[in-house]
Amino acid sequence: MNTRPNVNELLDEGFAMGGERLVALDLADTEMLVPNPSIDLLEPAGQREKWWALQAGRLPEGPIPDVASTRRIRSAVREVLDAHLAGRRPEATAVEDLNAASSAAPQSVRLDDGELQVRYHVEYGGNAKLAAIARETIELLADAEQLALLRRCANPECSMLFLAEHKRRQWCVGSICGNRTRVARHYEKTRKQS
User: Fold this and answer.
1) Does pTM surpass 0.85?
2) Which of 9, 28, 46, 186 is the most buried (most CB within 10 A)?
3) Angstrom distance (rounded) from CA 102 to CA 115
4) Taking a C-beta distance cutoff of 8 angstroms, is the pair 33, 24 a contact?
């Protein structure tokens, strides 16, 4: 359960995001906040199902969460991560939504062939996919070393979040936002020279 989609797979399916290490970040990035009004990449017919299918290799099996539940957990993830980046306390409802989603499908860990496996007990309720995303977000917030890697794209016209595995990483997707930023700088520089 570790196969994450790569940037090209996501772009080909209409998702302007980078295939982050955490599903929670990919989910938060399905809403583009900079345009006004914001753009919900899960909104067009069939896109929500495509996104969940692309993430299937790193999420527990089970039904795809409904639209309202997906939006609620996405909003909670975005709020707690944005709050961290802004240096403020997250809204209490966002923290409660994460805790509720995580605990709604109780989890247990097992050792299977020398590997840690997490089992979601959906027989007690909840959605395993949402519980996994909530748990991932909670674990990120509790890990100061990993949380220090959290960044927002340096492109002012982008709201995407990512974990900067390399200190020099500035953009969500270098071939998109990085190139746009470099082209804009070059255009501005040559325009001033003329």
Assistant:
1) yes
2) 28
3) 22
4) no
User: Does residue 162 belong to any structural domain of this protein?
Assistant: yes
152 has which bridge partners?
161
Q: Residue 101 has which token pair?
A: 């989603």
Say how far apart CA 11 and CA 8 lie, in whole Å.
5
Domain assignment of residue 1, yes or no: no
105-154 per-position pLDDT tens digit: 999 999 999 999 899 999 988 999 999 999 999 999 999 999 999 999 98
Vertex 84 angle, CA 35 and 79, to 5°: 50
Locus of tokens 């802004």: 86
Phi, psi of 40 (to 5 degrees): -95, 110
Q: Kind and range of the H or E element at 185?
A: helix 179-193
Residues 6+ apart with CB under 8 A from 4: 19, 20, 21, 23, 26, 55, 57, 58
CA atoms within a 13 Å half-sphere pointing along the CA-CB vector of 185:
8
Residue 2 lies in a domain: no
Task: Transcribe 24-50 into DSSP letters.
Answer: HHHHHTTEE-SSSS-EETT-STTHHHH
CATH number of the structural domain spanning residue 98 = 1.10.3300.10
